[in-house]
Amino acid sequence: MTFTEQLAAAWQKNDSQLCVGLDPDPAKFPAHLKGRDDAIFEFCKTIVDATADLVCSFKPQIAYFAARRAEDQLEALIAHIHERHPGIPVILDAKRGDIGSTAEQYAVEAFERFKADAVTVNPYMGRDSVEPYLAFPDKGVILLCRTSNAGGSDLQFLDVGGEKLYERVARLAAEQWNTTGQIGLVVGATFPAEIARVRAIVGEMPLLVPGIGAQGGDIEATVKAGRTAAGTGLMINSSRAILYAGKGEDYASAARLAARETRDAINAHR
Q1: Residues 106-121: pLDDT tens digits?
Q2: pTM of this prediction?
Q3: Is-contact 25 44, C-beta < 8 A?
Q4: Which domains does the chain possess?
């Protein structure tokens, strides 16, 4: 199955548009995991197993693994998700962006080494920096478009020929670059008006929406702005609010409760 086929199946099977971000910070782990060589894998695996039936995707952030020399644990985690929870797509949040020959290596890293189903990519070096990822026709390529951070407006709101830069990115992605049908866009929950604008430009294209939970994005506004006519089309990401909902040995059950509440809040506005 392609990335978009997996995503559509997960939307339906789990009745969910929740994406759980896996941003493991050992300083926030429960005491019983601290000091373990495999603490990052164990923490994330337990969260995954507790929430897999409530999500449409998982999104490990590569920096949280690489900074602690835990890339092997990231490989093991993605393998675990594919083996134990088949059909739930894994988005490697790497935000890669470089010239074609280097992008080819980043694509191999994401899709052959880590075996992710999709990867986040910075498109601001243009089409030839995106094309190497599209050489994997069944894999998702999720381009940064309108990001959730306040500083995103420094560049993304610049006028380029009568439209804002983020609108140009959305238009290029939808009309020229999406040769495999597997491109998606990142649009932050902190800007619901821009979510609606992107949806109007790109039609049914899936949107990865960070910024709810700890970043303060409004779920109702996000869903109403970004849903498709079928009531889907979104991967609404929550990381810290779910990962660290509990601080003790019951952290997995606390994460499950937080994930269920978030999924249900999303569904209430579909």
Answers
A1: 999 999 999 999 999 9
A2: 0.96
A3: no
A4: 3-267 (3.20.20.70)
